[in-house]
Amino acid sequence: MALKLIRGVSFRQLERRLVHDLGLQADCATGQTAWVVVPTAGVANHLRLQLLRSVGSRVLAGIRVAPLSQFLSRLSTAAGIAPGTRRGPLLDLLLHHLCQQSPDLEIARSMAQIRSGSRFLMPTFSDLADGGFGPGQSDLIIELARQPELATVESEVLYLYCRWLELLEKANVEWAPLQAQKLAQELEYLSEGKLRVALAGEDGPDPRIVFHGFYEFTDVNSQLLTAVSRRLPTRLYFPFLAGPQGKGCHPAFAFVMSILEDLQFRLGSYLEETQDLDRLAPEEPCQFFLRHYPEGDPSSPPSFLSWQFASGVRAEAISAALRIRRWLDEDTSLQPGEILIVAPEAASYLSVLPEVFQDFALPLRVSESPRGPKPEEMILRNLGRIWEEEADSEWVLSHLRDFLQSEPLREQFEEQVRAQGIWGKGAWGRTLGEFRGWSDFQKGRIEQIASICAPQRQKDCWAPQEALQQLKAMHRFWMNGSDRLKSIRQAIEKISQQFPELPIPQVLLRDWLLQSGAERPVSDPWNRSAVLFAPLMRSRGLTARRLVVLGLACGRLPLRIEQDPLLSDQSRRRLAAQARHVGHRLPIKTRATDEQTLLFLLLNTSAEALHWVIPDSDDYGRPVAPTPWVQRFLQHWESDQVDTCQRLAPLPRGPRQQALQMLDADAEKGGCLPLRWARQLGLKLPSDESAADRMGPRLKSLPSSLSVTALESLARCPLQFMARFLADWTPLQPLKPFRLPSAQQLGLLLHRALELLLAGSIEQGISLSATARMLLRDGEKPLRKIARQAVEEAFSSRPFSHRLLQEAAACRVIRLLSEYLQQCAGEQAVYPLSLEAEYRRAAPELAGARVSGKIDRVDQGDFRLCRIIDYKSGKKLARLEAEVQAGFRLQPSLYPWLHQSSSTDGQGTEASFAYIFLGDAPPRNHPLDEAPPADEMLRSLAGLLAEGCFFPTSNEVCQRLGFEPLQPCRGCRMASLCRRHDPSTADRSQRLFEEKAKPRLQYLRKHLALS
Known about the structure:
49% of the residues lie in helices and 12% in strands.
């Protein structure tokens, strides 16, 4: 086999070629499996979307896009190599043991004197393993350590690493970097059958491997790439630009030359072909920056570039939102998913970007950014803090309050602790003798708390069995039954078998708990169109039509890779040089300059337009200088006072000043100013807070006709009713291009399908049960015909993007219809009278306004009695009756009342009501004959309309008012208006409910008490 190397200026250029090549495979339908291997999950998700958009209705059979870790896991399974861990409690214990057993080395003694100092060895050992140093190179490592040019600390680190390899082998522990080395060796000898089964299945031709999105490789990854290329046809899409006349490379790509040279040396004759794409990509930014790197003074700002100075992180987020909002308004072909935001330090922006983008009605998707620990990890972090702070009473009570909420005696215990003035530490143990009012249960709790206090600890280290006993006791008392200490206990149990006399420092156990809640990268669902925000160092390989770069401050771009605590950059360069003398390549982590990193990022994306957000000061008001490369451009342009609309006015720090500037940007319509920011400007709003809550901006008059759906919205949340039916607020909905129909869309499909299904029964006067038996007798063909027609009609204006999704929706409708007909076939005979009929009736309780509704079906049974049917595509709710009584579901009350208006004499006949829940198995017919009277329900809602008090109603407000079964808030996209996450919102809404909605409150208390 062989490797084909394809080089291009940017990842966009390479991506287009890759998509084209994969599309040819889809057209040829060869049956060959293609694995597209990329560095991160973020790049994998991005590439999947690009492939789906490019092929249209064609099927990409056999193409798998996977991160490198997933691809290696598949190969490891085929080679029979057990997966290993890169970090964890067991490895920390072994590092501690290594330092204890190496007193002859100064570096080990130093690590032993530092709190959890042995952990500082792990980054260095991981880099040495990724550099290819494994158990088989022990002699080579010793030879390298003896080189006279190395410093003492560098030689000792190598000696200690050799002992680390021996210790892992003795303890029989699988370490991930060594497993990757073993995989590279095993691939040379893996049988053809196992390799084919792992990557392509039993039958078919050998799979094809594609590597894309990489800009550097560790030594082990280079070995893996080489091994794969020798066994399977492989392609590598790699960023590169040749120099003038094809000599060397462009200075911006100089740091990739060593990687290409290494691959050429490893592959030799296996490097079949090297193909260079066009010298320059068509995008203007790519050409512009290459012309002016490393030197050059552009005469004027390019048309694609805009920039803005901003004071503080929040101002930077606003600048990005304003620029993106304008881009979307100016270019209707631009989708939110084609816009990328990057920042060197993503964590500082995650606290403000979602809120600001929600205010501007912009969908945001976060990729591989730190979001903080999970709730279950916070339990361990809290426990570590309690242990570290010697059981401080506030930490203890907070832990019990957060994670033992259901315990009935918790509040009583907390009250007694505060009454006795227990502050923690040794007071927990002394209080048992000083205060006699504790119950046996409370005494046991205090003893457990005291056992974790520092004054109660007799020694700094425990034997493995003692540590296990302490962890088990902590698990029983502090973990509330959940086994979150399992990994730590298993590590100590394994160590106790190999090294039963190893002392385990208590500080190491505490650090495990404190560090278990460390922030980790997480990502939002990738299959929706939203503006993508990614950390700068995780965005290599991504492409976009528009790019926003935040945090262009000197010293912050790029975010420096944390320097190794043992080996400095100079030491690493010296080690790499000496490693070549003994016949081994030791790659160094890339240390690209500010200019190279920024330029390479801009070239990678090849965006059509670019916006720089440049910090003018930090969050504390201290001035910040832009990164030097950006300064070179801006100082030249601004010194010449070039007038350009791309240079935006600086954004101030204060919210009021920011709001004024955005209002000035569009003073006529206020299009740049979010609605809830009006308070910052002191616009003409009433001074009374309750009056301000009643006065929505630019409200229309109350409509003369209200649908049942609108009245349900009013009953649930008056603010949502005002937003949807009075103020016409329509926030931008995140687009999901490739998905099955939502619950609402599925309901429309089912309504239309049932209408088509039963139309003949009404015309011919046939009972529902007879119709069901007739359709079931004919098999699935008539149901499939009806389902297909419903899909085509219901979504003719918004067709599904792929026929397979249409087929999936039709199959789901067929299944639900079949289950419903089987249920109807065995029931008593009822005759459908009407389908999807619209009704209107004047409501004196609503000052004469008309109420409208569409009734799904009206049946007639024995004794000429009518029953109104309303379809629900989901399952029956557990709190259905409570929602009916509250008016959150008004059909049982208002549909019979509307049906009475259809009689010729104006009196009408009474009709019963029933829901049919098609999502239940089998579908369930649920009658609701005890619904509240319509006139009483309408009077309770009329008060809200008369007062004009459209306040938000959250679940917390209902709980405060004593309506526990009710959960009115469904999480609509008006969060920036109702501020439901603001603690003061519930207080204000409760007060307005009690003061301005008394008829509604009295109604709820009456009917929910009866229910």
